Amino acid sequence: MNFQIRKYLNSLQIECKEVLRLGNVGDGGWNICNDDEYRPRKNCTVISIGINNDFSFDDAIANEYGCMVYSFDPSMDKKDYRRSDHVQFYAIGLSANDSPLGNWKMNRLQTIKRKLGLSKIDVLKMDIEENEQTTITDMFANNTMDGVLQFVFEIHVDSNAVTKSKNAKTDLSPRRNKYLQSLANLRIIYNAGYRIFSAHQNPYSLFRYKKTRTRFTCHEISTIKIKLD
After folding, report:
1. For FRET with 216, which of 151, 159, 178, 199 sits at 20 to 30 Å CA-CA?
2. Which sequence spans correspond to the domains of the chain?
3. Do residues 108 and 97 touch, judged by C-beta distance below 8 A?
């Protein structure tokens, strides 16, 4: 199953002539299309959801384009604060509803946009550790993604890497329900007009089994919005 997702993601759907890696080269950085038609311009806006104490992307895109960046993460034990002239942090997570998750404050994307007074978003970055499985459908409902030009995100297809005994084989295939949900989410994104220009496996999500078998459970995907006929 994991092979089929890799095959789909490796077949890029549109060409971006100039791909910029903003932020860390490894985990924490993201690929942005800098082609004239898609690059962020004056008074650009970025929403970055899922920071995990790594602001390298947020700082880099603010410095590169002068964008106003709104950063969100409820898991960092930080209160809302102004990180710089161009980066504002909120201790809020993204969800399919506006109900709290334990002690974490959670909002839908449409709620976040309404609170910030945003209609146009040059780049939306999302890395929410498997919660995209249930959140993407809500994000793409009711025209919430209208005005988002670039959507970069990570999908998580975890594996059943549980060994019951020393001699048992480990099942490294993704759980069927999450695999199917990931495919359904990719279809939603495609049908909304987003086309993949960059995708790769996150090397930090590698599972190894007896040095001969490997699986990646996370894929970083960068898309741009095209005009549908």
Report:
1. 151
2. 2-225
3. yes
